[in-house]
Amino acid sequence: MLKRFFIICMLMIVAIGADANGMVVVPDSICVEDSVVTPAPKVEKEKSFFDKVYEVIKSFSRVDKKYIEPQHYNYTVMLQNTNTFESYTLSNKDGQEIVLSPEPSVKLGPYVGWRWLVLGYTIDIFHLFEGHHKQDWDISLYSNQIGIDLFYRKTGNDYKLRRVYLGEDISTDAVRNMPFGGFNASIKGFNLYYIMNHKRFSYPAAFNQSTCQKISCGSPLVGIGYTQHSLNIDVGQLNNLLEMHLGKDYSVSMDSSLVAAKVSYSDFSVSGGYAYNWVFAKNWLAAASLSLAVGHRRSTGKMDRGTFQLRDFSFRNFNLDGVGRFGMVWNNTRWYAGWSAILHSYNYKKSQFSTNSFFGSLNFYVGLNFGDR
Q1: Which of 16, 62, 217, 349 sees the fewest Cβ atoms within 10 Å?
Q2: DSSP helix/strand/coil, 21
Q3: What is the distance between the terminal CA atoms of the chain, rounded to a whole angstrom?
Q4: Global pTM?
């Protein structure tokens, strides 16, 4: 009788300990005189490969919520205008210089996104039916800890002579902004960087609007990069064009020892820099970052007259490159609008021949987040 009474009391205590959802709180073990009743151990379901990958990705997004407001929605739609531009400066050992660039490309298109993945397509609205054969794409992925820029550009045939310098006594105004089809170039590569103060500083808040920076904060950046460059200029065609339009004022040729020059080089770099997010008003953010990279070049050059290696075109040395990112955004977590810019500069310098490659993009966008998490 005493044993039955004791068991009934224990069951009543367990019933009183039921939680608000009606779930019964069961002690680890119930001692009844000499017997012990132990619940069966819980069998945890083994995580799938995709679950493990998701946990790794999720670890990149952990933040200090005092500084950063996480994303509250699963989906986004956005309309974006992208403006791309590029410029190449080439100079020789005599100090002569030409600057070539095409007209900027103006693109417009929609984007859709799920959490951190955003995809879209833009159309060059001013060159729909023109055969410039230009190819370019840029992809930038941002998490709180790691960011990556992937880019590929292959020029078309729409370059113009923006500046030609042949000497102080030679006027070249007659060829300013004149089309020149004897130049083509390509560049491809990536930049990978790590945000050191990633729990309080948010790159995504400024550049993909997936979070909101609540308190102004900055972070040092470190990274690595790799690029492949190719430049090809028909100097003979350039000389003919200058002679045709400058007439008597054209008294020297641009490096007459070259008939056609081609330079290809690869660049391995290590970079460091700093980024800062300034929260200057409610829902407003201004961002700026600059990274300088020390690049190690491996390059070859060729001349038209016989294919051989030029000593000054085949070298290994170090040069300084730069990447800048700037932006401003208004974001109330559901609606957002703003602009952003990414600029790249690469330098190749040697006594015989030097180039500077500069390209970038300027984006204007407006978007909506939806689908509560």
Answers
A1: 16
A2: coil
A3: 55
A4: 0.75
